Each structure stands twice: as structure tokens, then as C-alpha cells.
Amino acid sequence: MRRLGDLEAEIMDRLWRWGRPATVREIVDDINHVRPVAYTTVMTVADILHRKGLLRREKAGRAWRYEPERSREEYTAALMQDALGNTEDRQGALQRFVEHMSPEDVSALAAALRAMGRAPGGAEEPGAPA
Amino acid sequence: MTGLLGYTSPLLVAGAHVLPPLTTTLMVGVLLPKALAGSDRAHRTPRLALTAWTLLGVSLIASVSLTALHLLLPAAGSHHLSRFAEACIVSLGAHRGPLLPNGLAGVDTRVWAALCAAASVPAAFAVVLVRELLRARRVRIRHAELLRLVGSRRPGLPATVLQHDTPAVYCLPGRAPHIVVSSGALQVLTEQQVTAVLEHERAHIAGRHHLLVAAARAFGASFRTLPLARLARTEVPLLLEMAADDRALRRCSRDALATALYAVASGQTPPMAFAAGGPSAVLRMRRILTPHAPCSPAPRTVFVALTAVVALTPLVLACCAVPGITG
Question: How far apart are CA A82 and CA B277, in angstroms?
């Protein structure tokens, strides 16, 4: 059972790949190559994406032509900013493996590695258990 | 019973009944956190230290609450409270007789005011905590929604991949947890290192670490002038990272985790914006690379006992100091 969120991703994915505005019919036909999906379902989800501000649309005859508001790269960059940035309202919501550090702190990290007899560049360790 | 709940001595200096909870507030809010933050042993046993911080937090809320109670409650008024307490105990024990001889009307309005003031301290903290939890949840839901659209999966990798050159590894904790790895991170990390970072993030999710982070942040916002609040806000997240490191080390080598830490950190410069996390990463690195012998039982027991005593004493003290009961 596919969730509505998967269909959102499928629609966005196609529009990003095509790089041009497309009608619901075009999207439905393309998804139907992979699996059956109802026209009205795609129409509803496209409308939801439009209301969320992810798609913009313009009238093309009697149908709407949809287009992503921003590129996939822009959204990815926004997520990375969320993940790595230090804005107050983002703190505590995500848990990072390591905080974003200044170059001086990174050198201190390298020094700590060297002091323990490990080369910062050498990632492999012989015979380490996987 | 009356002997046990003996009434306030007339010789008691006015205001002196505020002293016990006030002292415990200072002890828990200022002295103990400084000792705990400066202790090496705390970093050796992060989970134990986290318990100690939690107990200190609870003790502080209790002692501030009792200080408020005692400030508003005049020594004379405390008779009513003690009678109230006595009546409660008696009626609980025997299930008979009226709660108060004169009913609720017999309780002074001033006593009610004091009780309300005392209750407002934990209530205010609860409000800040809930607000903080909801805020973090909102951020995560928004983030997860975009993530679903732009993230991708790779066979054999139990994480969402973001197509970005900067190495980044993080998790979205909560009810629908996600681990996210950037393609840049997958480029700089070996297979063993990827296993290590995934184990670290899984430990955050399994331990529900975001709840303690939220509690520490709420505490920091509620009592920001106290060293306990300031220190807990930085120490608790660091201890959680250490706890996650420890758990990851059960499944991966020290080298893999330490070098992964360096690879991700060094790949993230040039900066977007610095977090104040640099020195703590160095602390973690040293800890990962220095295997200390497992704590021998004796000192460990002593530390557990000391932590418990130190954190619980204020609570017990504060409870015993309810006016009129020890009078």
C-alpha cells in the first residue's frame, strides 16, 4: 500500500526530471508505465502540492500545467542548511553526528587523532572488525 | 501523631523557615552543577551523569517551589498547613472523619495563595517544556516532508541520502525516525565508518535522546540565570553524544568512529555557520580513542551512591522542611 507521500515524491521527481511544466494527464501517463494510478488521485495530490507552495501552475486550456516552485538542488540546500546551520529555532530538533566546527577546531581534532597515533587522513584501519 | 507533626516553635526566628529550601536551591542550582560539570568521571559514565543532571533538575524545581511556599507562608499560617497535612494523613489512614474540622473554609486564603505559588513553579516549567517539544516537532515535520521529496534511498543503506557534496550525517528523532546521510559523507567515509555513524545515530533514536535535549533546553530557558540551567544546556547534549558514541562502539571499532568524526567535521568547512560544538567534538574524540578500563565496581558504586545522595538530599530536606512538620 503506497502512501500519499510517495505519490507526492513521484510527481515532484518527474517534474524535476523533465524540467518543464506538465499537465496532470502527462504525469498520470508516465506513472502508469510503472503502476496504475487514477487521474483524480494525481490531480488531488498535485493540488495539495500547489497549496503547500511546492508547485506553481498556470491554465493550459481546460487543465492546469504544473511546475516545481524551486529546483531539487534548492530544496536540498535548504535541508542541509537546516542540518548544518546554527539558527536558534533549528536547534534541538535534529541530532547531528558532529557539530559544525571552525577550521581551528577541526585542526584540534586532527591533532587529537595524531596524538593517539592515528593519521587523520588514513581512514582504514587494518584488521578492524566490520 | 501531633507529636510528630509538632507545631512551629514560638522561638523560631521569623523567616528562618525559608532557609532550608533556599539553601538547597543554592546548592542544587549553583554548587552541585559546577562540581558535576567539572568532573572527569561524569564523562566516563555519561548515562549515569545524565541521571544526575535529571535528578538535579527535579530537585531544583522542588526546592524553588518550596521556597515560594515558605516565603508566602508566615510561620503562624503554617499551623493551618500542618493541621491540613495531619488531617490528610489521618483521613487517608482511617478513611473516616472530616478532612478539616471547619471544612475547606478553615484554610486561610494565604495558605491557598502559597500552595498556588508553589504549584506554579513546576506548572510553568511543564508549559515551557511542552512548547519546546512542539516547536522541535514542527521543525522535524517540515524537514521530513521536504526530505521525502528530495531524498533518495540506496540499496543496502538504512538511511535517506541527500544529494549534496558537503558531508553531513544527522537524524530526525521522534515517532517516525529518519537517519540522513549526504552523498558527500558517503564519498569521504569507508564502509566501516558509515556503519559507525549509523550506529551512533541509531543510538540517539533508540535512546529517545531528543526528549532530554528538549528538557535541558526548556530548563535553560526557565532558569537561565542559574549555573545549573546554563551548564545543563551544554553538558546534557554533550553527554548524549558520548552515550551514543559508547553504544556505537559496541558495533564498530574505535578507529572507525574517531576517523569518521574527523572526516565529517573536516569536510564541512568552509562554514555555513558555526555551532558552538568544536571543543566538545575534541572531548568526544579523546574519549573514543582512550579505552579506559571498565569502571571497577567499587568506585562505580561509590559514584552512584554519591550521585543519588547528592541529588536526593535536597528533595528530602525540602520535604522535611514543610512548615510545621519539623517546626
Answer: 16
